[in-house]
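Box S1 | Example of a co-folding query
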Amino acid sequence: MAKSEDKEEEKKKTEGEAKLTDIPGIGPGIAAKLEAAGVYDLMGLAVMSPVSLSDMAGVGEAVARKAIQAARGMLNLGFSDGMEFAKKRENVFFITTGSKNLNGLLGGRGVETGALTEAYGAFGSGKTQLGLTLAVNVQLPKEHGGANGKAVFIDTEGTFRPDRIRQIAEGVGANPEKVLKNILVARAFNSDHQILLLDKINEMIRDGEPIKLIIIDSLTAHFRAEFAGRGMLADRQQKLNRYLHNLMKAAEQHNLAIFVTNQVMANPAMMFGDPTTAVGGNIVGHASTYRLYLRRGKQGSRVAKMIDSPNLPENEAMFYLTGKGIRDEQDG
Ligand code: GTP
Ligand code: MG
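Box S1 (continued) | Returned holo structure for guanosine-5'-triphosphate
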């Protein structure tokens, strides 16, 4: 009881954003209905369809449509004090991917703290290998591209491989057993469990664990499996949105990096080009600071494309999946 009140307080303090009731057509009564149904913020509202909002809140569809549009409009209106922003940036550090090319694509030094990096792509494109490599590299000293920290690996698909970690650790000249000890692995059995694990992580950090990287492999698989069918899409997106929101909050509060993997699905609306699109669509895209699309390249290489970033151009980088993890050169 007291704990959930604390959480509410914390939420109010850290968000300071526009509220549901700031939207024209949404009074306290409707806001309460929405909150009871799991829509807590503008992002939750922005991703709804007019029909489902109309049903949920008992308003006409025209009012619902206007409210959704207003929420979408207001989401782009967050300003941040320039000095405050610059100060935050000073504390940011980077975790090397093991590849200069891929680091370069990410702005020069790798995966950034206080940010969420998403890698999506087909099976075998290297998402898990990148996650495993980062779990090792975060433990390196800062001058070698690490953060002297521990990693949390949330495994939804049973893909965590201690043997691979040992191999990658040897590749950077680290003690394999020590490296394994500094990776806290949890198997998430369903989306609720996956969400719950974030509370646990926050707790461990408060207890002094120097966690500097959270890997979620995969972010969306459980959500996708549990919320099958079109009728459940809005519910799924809301739950995912809340989760992403809390992940970003953890990244900012604890100055840690978050790396998530995501699947692709065929996009029937797209006639030309790469017919694949990331699961979770706009919601995940909106929450990710950096979005990488991974695919197989020529002669066993992999290609990463920067899809969406606040300050980086849409470039491509080539890398290899090697015995030692992610590298610029193929195994010799
Ligand atoms: P899904 O999870 O199935 O969607 O794919 P993913 O994108 O996570 O693929 P993953 O990162 O697991 O990449 C698998 C590929 O990594 C394999 O096809 C191999 O090419 C490569 N790989 C995995 N282990 C090793 C290794 O020990 N040595 C080398 N050279 N390559 C490896
Ligand atoms: Mg994988």
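The pocket of magnesium ion (ligand 2) is lined by residues 127-128, 159, 217 (CB under 6 Å). The radius of gyration is 20 Å.
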